[in-house]
Amino acid sequence: MKNLFDLKDKVVAITGGSGVLGSAMVTYMCSQGAKVVILGRRQEAGEAQLKALQDQAGEACFMTTNVLDEAILKQNAADIKARYGRLDILVNAAGGNMKGATIPPESTFLDLNMEDFRQVVDLNLLGTVMPTMAFAPLMIEQHKGSIINFSSMAALRPLTRVVGYAASKAAVTNFTKYMATELATKFGSGLRINALAPGFFLTKQNKDLLTRPDGSLTDRGQCIIDQTPFGRFGEPEELFGTLHYLASDASAFVTGTVAIVDGGYDSFSI
Ligand SMILES: NC(=O)c1ccc[n+]([C@@H]2O[C@H](COP(=O)([O-])OP(=O)(O)OC[C@H]3O[C@@H](n4cnc5c(N)ncnc54)[C@H](O)[C@@H]3O)[C@@H](O)[C@H]2O)c1
Fold first, then answer.
1. Which residue CA neighbors atom 40 of ligand 1 most closely?
2. 265 among known catalytic residues
3. Nearest Cα to 16, choosing from 87, 81, 96?
4. What is the best residue among 28, 41, 151 to mutate for testing ligand 1's pocket, by most ligand atoms within 8 Å of CB?
């Protein structure tokens, strides 16, 4: 019987591929025999990653990108087509937050920095929409492809403070569902799009909000742990199984869904 989870020789592009979760996913996909295109902003970071991937079953290459630049993204798509002739999986993992789009306890919504808010919305929303537009034509051509976006707990239950991030991730969830219908009805059921909604994983972006310099939890960090039935933050490798499922034919009838990977945070009440 066919192995529904086979990713060998699948061509996978991962934006934010040098980030904390992105680089972990690059390594995982490569270990499964996939051909991984790391789409990142810094060439040096990509080169270092490639060295560390040499012993994996698959292969990897690095391409410089900016998920907010249409011309660069189109060039990336052309380069992927020239190198591999196809693209099977797109993971839109580039994203993040900015201090000015966050409201600290001593401020209110009235203090919100509109320019920072706009930049965060651009990065998370347009930074998902624009790569999808640039790379979808490769998948449409081959009548098959799986796109995986990055939503967040903040999209499902708005968290205090991170107003720009939460609004833009909610928009990513909405876009994912919109696109599921758009892709299937206009281009066929081989084209799928889903989102991952990770709970709390300690990364550069949230470390200062969740932990103190000595490693102990801030009040906010403790509050999150208290509301997470598993009683801890997630580890990047705990995303791999869900990523693999959404990327592979194992989820062939699945589109427009948001897969929550959060140690129970979303289910917790009292
Ligand atoms: N860490 C968490 O707890 C968590 C929770 C929910 C969702 N997420 C989401 O997961 C994804 C990965 O996050 P992470 O925690 O690994 O963060 P990260 O900051 O380590 O990775 C984000 C990557 O995006 C890249 N990036 C930023 N702007 C870009 C641009 N214009 N063009 C191309 N790349 C750009 C950054 O260089 C970085 O490598 C993000 O979308 C994030 O919002 C993270």
1. 95
2. no
3. 96
4. 41
Q: Which ligand 1 atom minimizes the distance to the CA of 199?
A: 5
Domain ranges of the chain: 11-199+234-262
Which atom of ligand 1 sits closest to the CA of residue 205? 19
Q: Which residue in the list 84, 165, 178, 265 is annotated as catalytic?
A: 165
Which of 172, 192, 170, 183 lies closest to 247, judged by CA?
Answer: 192
The H or E element containing residue 115 is helix 114-121
Per-residue pLDDT 10s for the chain (270 aa) are 899 999 999 999 999 999 999 999 999 999 999 999 999 999 999 999 999 999 999 999 999 999 999 999 999 999 999 999 999 999 999 999 998 999 999 999 999 999 999 999 999 999 999 999 999 999 999 999 999 999 999 999 899 999 999 999 999 999 999 999 999 999 999 999 999 999 999 988 788 889 999 999 999 999 999 999 999 999 999 999 999 999 999 999 999 999 999 999 999 999
- The two tokens of residue 252 are 């062939």
- Taking the CA of residue 233 as reference, the ligand 1 atom at the shortest distance is 3
**Superfamily (CATH H level) for 11-199+234-262:** NAD(P)-binding Rossmann-like Domain (3.40.50.720)
Contact present, 128 and 91 (Cβ < 8 Å): no
